[in-house]
Amino acid sequence: MRTDPDAPDRNEDRVTDSSDTTRRKLAAVVYNPIKIDLDAVKRVVAAEEQAAGWEPTLWFETSKEDPGGGQAKQALEAGAGVVIAAGGDGTVRAVAEVVEGTDAALALLPSGTGNLLARNLSLTLNDLEHSLHSAFAGGDRSIDVGLTDIYREDGSHTRHAFLVMAGFGIDAKMLAATDDELKAKVGWLAYVKAFGQVLRDKNRLRLRFKLDGEDVRRMSAHTLIIGNAGSLPGNILLLPEAAVDDGLLDIVIMRPEQLVGWIQIFTKVLWENGVLGRVPFLRRFRTREVKALNYLRGKVLRVRLNHPEEIELDGDPFGKAIGMVTRVAERGLTVRVPADVAESPETPAEEQQPLAEADA
C-alpha cells in the first residue's frame, strides 16, 4: 500500500519522534493470537502508550485466511502512525508488505521460532517490555525491502514483499515438506526431518536469469536464494556481504555436485562465513567463492524456470512459480528501534520505478 500524495492528510495530530519524523501518536497492534500472550501484551502496551502520551492503541487479530495484510491496511486507514507486528515471520512480512512505501513505521514484537528480521537488526528477542518501549519511545531506522512479482504457470502473477530472503530450491522445498504440527511442538528442529527429505531430491532447477543490465545467463542449480539480509537462525551467516540498508539484493546460487559439493557449501557457510568472517583479523583467510556456491549482487533480478518450482518468502511457502522478478525498494520501510541506535534524519530515497514484465 502506498499513500496518495494528493489525498487529504488524516494525521492532523502528529508528533516529532527521536528521528525527526512526524506522524500521528497512534499505534495499532496486528497480532497472531496463537503466538502471543494477549493479556500480557495489552498490559505493557497500556503502560507504554500512557507514558508516551499516545492515543489508545488499536487492536487487529490475524486469521489463517489473512495473516496480517488486511489488518495492517485497516490500521493505516484508521490513521495509525506505528503498526506493531506481534507474531512470527509470516505476520511481520504481511504487515510490512502494506506498511512499505507509506509514512507509517513498523514495530516488531518478536515471537515464534524464526524472528528473522529482528535477528538481522540485532533487536532484543523475548523481551516484551523492551520491544514495546522501542515501539512507543524509540526511534526510526530505514531499511530496504525486496519486492517480488511471482509468475505462475497459468500466466497469472502476484506481487509480494520480503524482508530477509526469498528463493527456489532447498529452502522452499524444505518448507513445503515441513510438518506444521511438529514445528509447533519443537520449533526449528522440525526442519531437520524435512531437510533430509529434500537432500534426497535429485531434481535441479533449470533456469535462466538476468541481473540488472547484464546478459541473460543459463544455469542448472540446486538452490537460488535472494537476500535482503544475511543471517539465519542458529547464527548462520548465509550472505556475508548483505545489509538491510545497502540498496542491493544479495544472491547465492548453490550448485553442489554430489557429496563434495555439499562439503564445500557447509565449509563456506558455517566455517568461513560463520567463524572467519566474524573475526576481523581472520577475514583475509576467506575464499571469495567456491565452485558449488556462487554469490552475486544487484538491484533487479529476473528469473525464468523450465518448469514450476516451490518458492518461499521469509520462511513462508508461496506454492509453485515458473518465474519471478525481484527488485529492491531502497529504504522503503521504516522500522522502530531503540532510541540509542536510531538513525539520524536523511534525505528520502528516490521514488522507485515499477517493475517490468518477467522477460528473462
Could you write a compact summary of the structure shown?
The chain folds into two domains: 14-137, Rossmann fold (3-Layer(aba) Sandwich), CATH 3.40.50.10330; 146-330, Tumour Suppressor Smad4, CATH 2.60.200. Helix content is 25%, strand content 33%.
What does this structure look like?
It contains nine helices and 18 strands. By secondary structure, the chain is an alpha+beta fold. The protein folds into two domains: 14-137, Rossmann fold (3-Layer(aba) Sandwich); 146-330, Tumour Suppressor Smad4 (Sandwich). The strands form four sheets. Strands 7, 8, 9, 10, 11, 12, 15, 16, 17 and 18 form a ten-stranded antiparallel beta sheet that branches. Helix 6 (170-177) crosses helix 8. It starts with 13 loop residues before the first strand and ends in a 23-residue tail after the last strand. 44% of the residues are buried.
Return the CATH architecture of the largest domain: Sandwich
Measured by DSSP, the beta-strand proportion falls in 25-35%
Structural class, by secondary structure, is alpha+beta
Shape: elongated
**What is the CATH top level name of the largest domain?**
Mainly Beta
Give the beta-strand count: 18
Report the mean per-residue pLDDT as an integer: 80
CATH topology of the largest domain: Tumour Suppressor Smad4
* Alpha carbon gyration radius: 20 Å
What is the straight-line distance between the termini? Answer: 27 Å
Separate helix tally: 9
Q: Poorly predicted ranges (pLDDT <50, ≥5 residues)?
A: 1-20, 175-179, 188-195, 346-360
What profile does the largest beta sheet have?
A: 10 strands, antiparallel
Percent of residues in helices: 25-40%
- Note the run of SSEs as H and E: EEEHEHEHEHHEEEHHHEEEEEEHEEE
Number of domains: 2
